[in-house]
UniProtKB/TrEMBL annotation:
It comes from Halovivax ruber (strain DSM 18193 / JCM 13892 / XH-70). Signal peptide: none annotated. It comes from the Archaea. Residues 55-129 form the ACT domain. This is Acetolactate synthase, small subunit. InterPro entries: Acetalactate_synth_ssu (IPR004789), Acetolactate_synth/TF_NikR_C (IPR027271), Acetolactate_synth_ssu_C (IPR019455), ACT-like_dom_sf (IPR045865), ACT_dom (IPR002912), AHAS_ACT (IPR039557), AHAS_small-like_ACT (IPR054480).
Length: 274
């Protein structure tokens, strides 16, 4: 190959092949981190923010593989999930996934946006306002002091579900703080094993638990709240698009995500946001 027209590179060597342009070392590189799968992490999410605990509810199609798709999204995007529960709802073919996350505000927003992009997700959002939350725990302790174990169980409104000379297994339900306190009380006897279900939650009153979820027939207040929440989500996405550019970490514009979400809402018989 002829050396005619060869151009010097920034490191002093000549480039003899390839089209004209900057050397690889001179090309700009995104400063944000990437996950182990090569997915770029949004620098806005990566910036220093205070973490907070949030409860995110997702209404999904109740079909095989749904939980794997949601958990795969959580794993790829490296969201910090404290607990996850799933179960059917009153609507045939629908299931509710409840996630407790320890994330920054941008992280919570990013999780909601990414969930809404999944075709199996009907609606997703943070449970706002007053909620009712519970979780169940099974605690197996040593059986050396059955009377004292029984006293602690009664104090926390629990139930002994199995007992033998070696161990005692009790069942308790309550909010997270009550379950944590009960576990601490059992430590004096020697805890052998613990199994916790994770937190599940519902919004109080006639407000839908999942923003955008279709309310029960006749629930006008819930229907208005669902419509208002969808409008707020759309407005928030448009403002973020104007302030942060046309794309988010997933590569789609907030407006596109909103349009896709509206399309899914229409598909499942719910009115789109005005």
């Amino acid at each position: 190959m002829s050396d005619e027209g060869a151009q010097p590179r920034s490191d002093g060597h000549e480039r003899n092949d390839g089209p004209p342009g900057p050397a690889p070392s001179d090309r700009p590189h995104p400063e944000s981190r990437r996950t182990t799968d090569g997915i770029r992490i949004d620098p806005v999410v990566e910036a220093e923010h205070d973490r907070r605990r949030a409860v995110v509810s997702a209404l999904v199609e109740h079909e095989p593989g749904v939980l794997a798709r949601v958990s795969g999204l959580v794993s790829r995007r490296q969201f910090n999930i404290e607990s996850l529960t799933v179960g059917p709802t009153t609507v045939a073919g629908h299931a509710r996934i409840t996630m407790v996350v320890e994330e920054t505000d941008p992280g919570v927003d990013q999780l909601k946006k990414q969930l809404r992009k999944l075709p199996v997700v009907i609606a997703a959002g943070e449970i706002a306002g007053e909620t009712v939350s519970r979780e169940l725990v099974l605690v197996k302790v040593r059986g050396d002091e059955p009377e004292r174990v029984h006293a602690i169980t009664e104090m926390y409104d629990g139930e002994t579900i199995a007992a033998d000379p070696q161990t005692i297994t009790v069942e308790l339900t309550g909010d997270e703080s009550r379950v944590d306190a009960a576990i601490d009380a059992y430590r004096q006897f020697g805890i052998v094993e613990i199994a916790r279900t994770g937190q599940t939650a519902l919004a109080r009153g006639d407000v839908p638990t999942t923003p955008g979820e279709a309310p029960a027939p006749g629930c006008e207040a819930a229907r208005r709240e669902a419509s208002d929440q969808a409008s707020r989500d759309t407005a928030s996405g448009e403002r973020q698009s104007e302030g942060n550019g046309p794309t988010d970490a997933g590569g789609d514009s907030p407006r596109t995500a909103t349009t896709e979400r509206t399309g899914r809402t229409e598909k499942h018989g719910q009115p789109p946001a005005e």
